[in-house]
Amino acid sequence: MGNFEHISVEQAKAMMATKKVAVVDIRDESMFNFAHIPNSLHLHGGVMTQFMQETDEDTPVIVTCYHGISSQPAAQYIAEQGYTKVYSLDGGFTQWQSTYPEDIATITE
Questions:
Q1: CA-CA 20 to 30 A from 62: which of 47, 90, 96, 108?
Q2: Which listed residue (65, 74, 78, 86) is catalytic?
Q3: 26-49 pLDDT per residue, tens
Q4: At what angle do helices 92-99 and 9-18 cross, to 10 degrees?
Q5: Residue 91 sits in which domain range?
Q6: The pLDDT value given to residue 45
Q7: Does residue 106 lie in a domain region?
């Protein structure tokens, strides 16, 4: 059974710039659609199986939520599924948005 690690927004951004990383956002759909980290996936129960089928277990996975609290048990769950490099984003999307306000994606319908 694996464990997750904590990662700062600065470390996450650097990691995303240098290698393939799966960034998953567990916030509710309306908030994800309003604003999220670019190229992140809105991860919820309905897409978890697909995510695990399509994402190699050696791919680093960064889990984000609102403030970095709910992402911790989610990251632990993902690590327990066999993923070897799982991180919980400290401060969550709120910290990302505060640190990198220019680096935000949205979904418009």
A1: 108
A2: 65
A3: 999 999 999 999 999 999 989 999
A4: 80
A5: 5-68+83-99
A6: 87
A7: no
